[in-house]
Structure formats: C-alpha cells, structure tokens
Design goal:
DNA-binding transcription factor activity (chains A, B); DNA-binding (chains A, B); DNA binding (chains A, B); homodimer; Jelly Rolls; alpha+beta; cNMP-bd_dom (chains A, B); Arc Repressor Mutant, subunit A; WH-like_DNA-bd_sf (chains A, B); DNA-binding
Amino acid sequence: MDIASSEVSDAGTLVACRSCQARHGVVCGALSSSQLRELGRHSLRRKVDAGSEIIAQGAESSFYSNIMRGVVKLCKVMPDGRQQIVGLQFAPDFVGRPFVRESTLSAEAATDSEICVFPRNLLDRMISGTPELQRSLHDQALKELDAAREWMLTLGRRTAEEKVASLLHLIATHAEPQTATSTAFDLPLTRAEIADFLGLTIETVSRQMTRLRKSGVIRIENFRHIIVPDMDELERMISA
Amino acid sequence: MDIASSEVSDAGTLVACRSCQARHGVVCGALSSSQLRELGRHSLRRKVDAGSEIIAQGAESSFYSNIMRGVVKLCKVMPDGRQQIVGLQFAPDFVGRPFVRESTLSAEAATDSEICVFPRNLLDRMISGTPELQRSLHDQALKELDAAREWMLTLGRRTAEEKVASLLHLIATHAEPQTATSTAFDLPLTRAEIADFLGLTIETVSRQMTRLRKSGVIRIENFRHIIVPDMDELERMISA
DNA sequence: CGGAAACTTTGATCTGGATCAAATCGCAAT
DNA sequence: ATTGCGATTTGATCCAGATCAAAGTTTCCG
C-alpha cells in the first residue's frame, strides 16, 4: 500500500480493496483487467463516517476515490462561514478533480459511506494512456456540469417550495422506486444541509416540508424517511 | 461546405473560415496541422448579432463552435418564462455539448460576436482519435464546472450587493487591466440579463449598481461602460 | 430633426423568506 | 426511567429584495 496512511486513516477504517478489481465505480469500468489489477494493488477500501471530510477545501490531495456506497456532498465555504453545497454524489461516482491538485471545494460524507481510494499519480498516468478512461471521466464531468447548471436554475429562480420539491425529486431519482409511481427513501441530509444546498434557512426548509406533507405530496416518518406516493405530483411542483 | 446553410445562416453573415487553421479556439490548439486543414475545409466563420441564438434549448444541433470574438450567454428557461443564465463564455471558448446531440440549454450571443462553426460528426470523429483534443475539451468542461459551482455559491448565499459585485468582478477578469489596480470595460449584458444571471430583478440590479457607484467602487458611463478604479476594493466586497 | 421604443433609474409599497425565540422530539448516556 | 443535547418544528416579527408605478436616457429609424 503506497498511500500514506496519515492521509486516509484519520476518519475511517481501512481494509484491503478488491472492489475496483470487481469493476465498480466510474473509473474501473474503463480499465483493462491488467490495469484493474494494478489499481487494485494500490487502492484501499475505506469506510467513512457521516460528517467526515474526504477532501478539504483549499487543500492539496494526492488521491482520488470512487464512491462505493453512501452519499457525498460537495461543499464550498466562505471566509465568514456562509456555506453552499454545490453537488451531491452517489455510488458509483468518482470524487476528485483530475489534473489539478488543489481542491476548490470540500467533499464530505453525508451518510456513512464506503469509498475506494487510489493514488493520484497512478491514476493520472493511466488517464494519459487510456482514452477510454479519459472519456469516462470527461462524461462524468459533463454530467456534473449539467447537474450544476440545473441547480443554478433552482437556486436563482425557484421559490422555497419549489426548491424543497426539487431536492426531494433529486434524491428520489437516486432511490429505487417502490411501485410505478411511488418512491420512498431516507434523506441523506439534515435540515441544515438541505438549507445549505437550497440557499435557504433551516426554518424555511422545515416549514416547506410540513407544507408538502400537509398537502399530501409526501409523507414523513421520523423526520428522515420520506414517502412520495406519486412522483408525478412532485414533478408538477417543480414545473420542469 | 457541408454545413446545411439553413442551420446557420438565419442570423448572421457566413464567410469562409480560415481562423481555425490559424489555431484559434480551444479545439484548434489540440489538433495536428492536417486535422486543422480538414476542419478548416468544413468550417465557417459566422458573424452573430447580439441577441441571436446559436443553439436553442431542447433542440438537436449538428454543429459545434469556437468563439472567436464576443460574449456568449448560456441560458435555461422554465416553461413559465422564468429564466436563468447559467454561464458566460468568452473567446476562445468552445460552445456545444460533446457526445450529446440535444442541448439542455440555449447559447445566445450577448454581444455582436464571431464564431467558427464546424460539423459535429467531423469533430466527434476527431475527438475519438485525438487524446489531446479529448483532454482539451475535458479541461474546458472542468473549467466550466468550477465556474458553475462558484456561481452556485453566489446564487445561494450572497446578498444582492455581493452578487452585483461578483458579476462585475467576473467580467472585469476577462477585460485587460488599464493599470495594476484599475480596469475598465463595456458590460456585455443588459440589466435584464444581469438580473437573470444573478437571480434578481432589474430594479434590484439597478439599485445596487448605483449603490456601488455612490460608494466610489465603480464609475458608470452611458449605463454600459464601467470603470473600476481599484479591483482590490471590488474583491473585498465579495469576501472571496 | 423628431419621436417612438427600449432600456434604465428612481420612488412607494408589499411580501417571501430571514431572523429571533420557544417548544417538542428522539436518542444516547447515565 | 431521567437527563441532557442536538435536531426539528412552530410561532412572532422583521427586512432585503420583489412588485408596482412613473419618469428619465439613449438609440435608432423614418
């Protein structure tokens, strides 16, 4: 293992990683079996507790990760403490900014997660020699760009109620549906995190959630578990 | 010329394009001279008037462009007419979404512009065979992603005054400075467009501009020409 | 040159979401 | 069970920015 353990061991449990060899993750799908074996030799499966940082804003990082399980939030913080979540990532997304060592944002596990960590040097070398991998990472960047721009519309032009509905819709999209129309899931974010994603306050988020509940669009159990009886109804609230 | 003129001639003047052969633009820098010659044979220099569309939201497009001169705004519109500008692009940026025919946003010239238009098929083929080009487009996508996320922070967490200052700062960044500290430029956007970029109304934009003027951070001539005597002062307003 | 249309500023008022302030809930530790 | 604490909800009030309404400016075209 050539990953300095000081970099990755302070917030989770390290176990040997065989997952990449099993072709999980955005990166692994684009590699040959010999590359996979090499990457596997140098990667670590890491459990990350909810709330712990994977990459710090402004810090240099010498590794990348694939998300194997859980939800990761990408966050920007201003000097005065104001905070904006600029993206959510789900398995099997790739975490890390190719080609640039310093990160302009932090990546933090929103739920208990598992990631597969591998060294930047090795992957950068593989990218150069593997057009398919370059393409795969390019695709992920374009996907994230689309998501970011869609969210800019939400932040700039939607009302608080539409914002909360948009968030529920986004998360519901990553849960497997119960039936043709209904979906249920656990929120991976606290009210404070939802507020930081939507550019609102926790009070407004809470009020809009109870509004949605009272109007029958969602049911809420234990603050965290959301049931959407009819996804179409949720979509109609977003006018998109 | 194998670009259907119906696609590109309705809003500008077409002239034969030699600019790509001269290695302008994000795309052209990554091509060999024989590829440049081929691309040049199939590209058109097009003049685009301010306000005319380059790509329509939801439409399929069979061409890409390089911006040679001018400013292009990327815009998302909701069914009810609410609108959000999700990015500004300057020469020599690339316009178009690689690999995906249908655009989720519209690209429109904000100022009178010149773009170099070339066929999607040809460039897609060149991307596959030219890792350097793939890398160059990947870099542009990552740059746009950083810009989008930076703007999400602005939309979600900054005040109206900070938003307007952020916009002026963004545009000033793309103008060449007058002296070490001072910069001057013509705004490429109307107040309505600024409002759609910042998630505000035109009245609020106008009021904040006069506030900045009265506090001496900027001078305004003819509504459109902005003079920033001290860029540091502008940056301090953004707290970033 | 005139005059209309589009853009911008300015003023008055309103309101959606922020802020301030308690309750209430749920859960972990004792 | 009890306590204590963080997360959430709910209520009361406030205010930044929206909305409504004129009144300038500028541009452009006949």
